[in-house]
Amino acid sequence: MESTNLFRGYGKVNPHLEDQSPHHQYTSSKRRILIFSVSSILLLTLIIGLALAALIHESNSESEESLFLSSSNPAESIKTVCDMTQYPSSCFSSISSLNSPAKPDPEVIFKLSLQVSISDLKNLSSFLISFNDVSSQAAVKDCVSQFDDSLSKLNDSLSAMEVGPGEKMLTLEKVKDIQTWVSAAMTDQDTCIDGLEEMGSKFLDEIKAKIERSKEFLSISLAIIAKMQALLEKFDLKLH
Questions:
Q1: Considering Cα of 70, then 76, then 78, then 82, what sign does the dihedral take?
Q2: Per-residue model confidence as pLDDT tens for the chain (240 residues)
Q3: CATH number of the domain that 103 lies in?
Q4: Domain that holds residue 27
Q5: Same domain, yes or no, for 116 and 88?
Q6: C-beta of residue 109 within 8 angstroms of C-beta of residue 81
Q7: What does pTM read for this prediction?
């Protein structure tokens, strides 16, 4: 009986030893590589999916913002433009007080800012003409002349934006010209202040306060036209 059992057991291989065969090791290694590869692909797919979702969300947000700005919300459009200036509150209140179109864009808002500057400068010129200060009469006269020159430059800027059907209100060339004209108008006001200071006008502080207010409006116009391209992009528009 013992010999029979020995005979039956002869030639059998330990299952644990069989698992350690080279073929089995190769199969296990191959399986691990396959699992790792599939996991990597799934992880990479997830990362790409999340990145695409973020890009789509950002694109949709920008499109919604552009649509919102260019739709029926003139106050928000004016605020967006004015936030690009050094005096956002003054910009918003002065432009909002005008009769703006139902759907203002940066070009229209800039045009309105020019109208504010022109109106204020006209009032300033009339204010100076009313003065009877003999000691500063020559300086005041020079100021009025300089303000006339400033008004001419601002009116040239408005005229450049008056276009016919199908024509572009602003081009790159027009933007450069208008920047030059508005900057020159601000220089005229600085020259006026210098002249009044030299003459020792007793009304200098009063006049200077009004000129600084006028310069503030010009600064607003200058900031808007200087950043026109970036502003147009916010409204999903382009500089022609």
A1: negative
A2: 544 444 444 444 454 444 455 555 556 666 677 676 777 787 777 787 676 755 655 544 444 444 444 445 888 999 999 999 999 999 999 999 987 766 789 999 999 999 999 999 999 999 988 877 777 788 888 999 999 999 999 999 999 999 887 778 899 999 999 999 999 999 999 999 898 888 777 778 888 899 999 999 999 999 999 999 999 998 888 877
A3: 1.20.140.40
A4: 15-67
A5: yes
A6: yes
A7: 0.69
